[in-house]
């Protein structure tokens, strides 16, 4: 479970940072008010938690959701690729191009999770819960 959450956080951070960089803020990550980016990261995290990506439902919906966010942030279509063995089980490949001295980065996001039967969890594993400043999903 820790690996899955790390991955979700990594993708959330990646998309949020990409949007930040594309926004034209030249002063770095320290801004007077980071609330917009915190909300964006939370919204992406929530969106991914609430998409059931078990084998039965596939990962395509999550890949499409993240691809949509990248397009909305202004990334070119030719740097965003949805690919997989069938229509239900696609993943996202995203190329983050370098500029000047910055090297390009290739992001390949693994989105599927193992089967999560509701009766085996203290909470619905695909419902994002925020309580007392903490985020909960499943058995956390």
Structure description:
- The structure is a single chain.
- With 140 residues, the chain is α+β, with helices and mostly antiparallel strands.
- Helices cover 35% and strands 15% of the residues.
- The strands form two sheets. A three-stranded antiparallel β-sheet has the order 1-2-3, covered by helices on one side. It has a two-stranded antiparallel sheet with strand order 4-5.
- The N and C termini lie close together (9 Å).
Short précis:
The protein is an alpha+beta fold and 140 residues long. Helix content is 35%, strand content 15%.
Mean pLDDT: 77
Counting DSSP H or I runs of 4 or more residues, the number of helices is 3
Integer-rounded radius of gyration: 16 Å
Oligomeric nature of the chains:
single chain
The total strand number stands at 5
> What is the percentage of strand-forming residues?
15-25%
Query: How would you write the strand order of the largest sheet?
Result: 1-2-3
Extract low-pLDDT stretches.
Answer: 1-7, 19-29
Number of domains: 1
Largest sheet: 3 strands, antiparallel
- Could you estimate the helical fraction of the residues in percent? 25-40%
Shape: flat
Helix-strand category: alpha+beta
Helix-strand sequence:
HHHEEEEE
- Termini separation comes to 9 Å
């Amino acid at each position: 479970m820790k690996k899955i959450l790390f991955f979700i956080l990594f993708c959330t951070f990646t998309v949020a940072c990409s949007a930040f960089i594309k926004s034209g803020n030249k002063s770095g990550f320290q801004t007077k008010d980071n609330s917009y980016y915190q909300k964006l990261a939370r919204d992406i995290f929530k969106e991914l938690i609430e998409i059931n990506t078990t084998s039965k439902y596939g990962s395509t919906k999550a890949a499409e959701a993240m691809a949509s966010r990248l397009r909305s942030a202004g990334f070119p279509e030719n740097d965003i690729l949805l690919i997989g063995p069938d229509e239900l089980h696609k993943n996202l490949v995203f190329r983050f191009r370098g500029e000047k001295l910055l090297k390009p980065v290739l992001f390949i996001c693994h989105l599927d999770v193992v089967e999560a039967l509701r009766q085996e969890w203290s909470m619905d594993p695909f419902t994002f819960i925020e309580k007392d400043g903490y985020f909960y999903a499943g058995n956390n």
